[in-house]
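seq as requested:
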Amino acid sequence: MKSKKASYQPPSEPPATLLSPRNPQDLHWEMQEVQLAIARRAYELFETRGCEHGHDWEDWFRAESELLRPVSISISESGDRISVRVNVLGFDENELRVSVEPRRIMILGKRETRVTESEGGKVEYIDWYPDQILQFIDLPSPVIPETAVIELQAGLLKFELPKAAGHKVETAVAAA
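struct tokens:
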């Protein structure tokens, strides 16, 4: 009998989920709750230090690091579009709110705290990372928000943004 060789097949990618952008003004209102929580925490840090002035930025950045999950961002630009990739690993589509404006992307993520318990009631897993994302991304060129395509796939938020007319990147062609 001949043996069959097993061939390696990489695992298939999970399907992408399309996200609908929100109205920028509505998302601004939702973001205010997170911004106020950061301001409260920064003020607590100020008070803990005995109300010593001169450390306001330090307090603000520390409050952000305690309350917000850091995200990595990649932006690429071609002739007629801008592609943006944002790592939002651990967030589901129902936990993310996005908005696209001509010069900016806004992302708000609020995740439920997840705890796994075994049969005996012992806690198996707690995610200690902050459970919120608040991110503003300035774009290098104006885009057309109405035609943006936004997908979430395997923890990666993908934006495909057509550029507004008159803002295409020109590639130099050498004259013969």
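Residues 170-176 have pLDDT under 50 and may be disordered.
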